[in-house]
Amino acid sequence: MTTFADLGIDQDIVDALASKGIVDAFPIQEQTIPLGLPGQDIIGQAKTGTGKTFGFGIPVVQRLGLNPEHGVKALIVVPTRELAVQVYEDIDLLTSNRSTSVVAIYGGKAYEGQIDQLKAGAQIVVGTPGRLIDLAGQRLLDLSNATEVVLDEADKMLDLGFLADIEKIFQKVPAVRHTQLFSATMPGPIVALARRFMSNPIHIRASDPDEGLTQANIKHLVYRAHSLDKDEIIARILQAEGRGKTVIFTRTKRAAQRLVDELGDRGFNVGGVHGDMGQDQRERSMAAFKAGKRDVLVATDVAARGIDVDDVTHVINHTIPDEDKTYLHRAGRTGRAGKTGIAVTFVDWEDLHKWALINRALEFGQPEPVETYSSSPHLFEDLDIPAGTKGRLVSAPKTQSVKTERAPRPERAADAAAEGTDEGGTRRRRRRRGGSNPVGSTFAEGATDSASGDSQSAPSGDRSAEGAGTHDGAGKEHHDGKPAPARRRRRRRGGSGGAGAAPVVGA
DNA sequence: AAAAAAG
Fold first, then answer.
1. Which of A67, A200, A228, A464 lies most in the core, judged by the most C-beta atoms within 10 Å?
2. d(Cα A272, Cα A254) in Å, to the nearest integer?
3. What is the pLDDT of residues A401-424, one digit of tens each?
């Protein structure tokens, strides 16, 4: 396997990566880095969780040189604030052995710190469009020397919601520059549009086009569900054997908050991320999830793209997304860096056409979602939900049993104490009954850590551990603090049942 | 139509 050292990368960067155990290069990195280093414009496309960030980040850092002059030389634009934080951390790692400094510029935060870092001469800016334009308009951010430009999640950045901002930003950077666009999804029309901002770009696809876009190591399970049942079913899934971290996606901010409260009431170690939360809360919640202090994250599509968390074993689509691209990005929060994952999707009756669309676009070839549990014990087989509770609509797991199973209690108690709030269910319960949801105030995250603490989970890391395509399935311990399941039953029984009953697609 | 992104 190709290592980073083989790719013409400066030794200090190779060392920085090695310090996190990152040695082997993924295919997208192998293909784009040698082109990016000499300044070739690139449209880089590779599946979720296969290392795109370093694919563009390493050339950016290296091309600035060991001791770049003060002032912004590189701009990386991303669609969400949390992704800005994450990419900032990745780039910061790459620069750890050189004088280059990086700053994250995004909304919801005080201006002061960001402006200070710009004034101190930061050379690489990672940011979201709104705040970037804001600061540029105030002459606090000078992009006129930013000869390195990257759009991460490029198809999203060129979407209608962002395109006007992106055009503004491109007007502020030099006409002669090195431009890189990366995403797992790059529809033809977007590629055509993208060329307007690039010169003679080469389109790199890191995988066989015939292979489709979905990750082979993600198993897709699709069920028709009645909305009233979903809380129960999700509660059951959260008790599946071998479950590590789990991300649950909802369609709306309100639905996300409701589910955070509901699952919290049921005793799960859950946090949320959505746009109605305060930015500090969002970041604490993400950090707690990344660090393993929480093992369930309920999110809107703000977390659908790019977010890289180790050991996410399950993604649950509480509501099926409208677009195939969104489905693919959501599911891609699991099965990263060669690991396996499960994506469970609930399809409401009126949303069956959406599943048909996604099914077709992603070439799943799945006939029809199976009805959940009234008729389908398959749900429980496929998800390894412990025997004895199978097929029965059980009430919520009691707080006690879940707590002993999951995160060590002392830690939680300590967190709550440190925060000086009553983290317990009382506030949530009251609020839920009351119907109104003053969101943002319901979480009590670990008080100690901030977003950029040591919660950094070796971005795209782990790759050294396993060869491409190997499945770590039953052999691996996914949990922090959770006792290894004594009984590990067959993962998969007799394939997938009978005609049409198989909710399985993919690997 | 929702979510995201400036405040």
1. A464
2. 11
3. 333 333 333 333 334 333 333 333
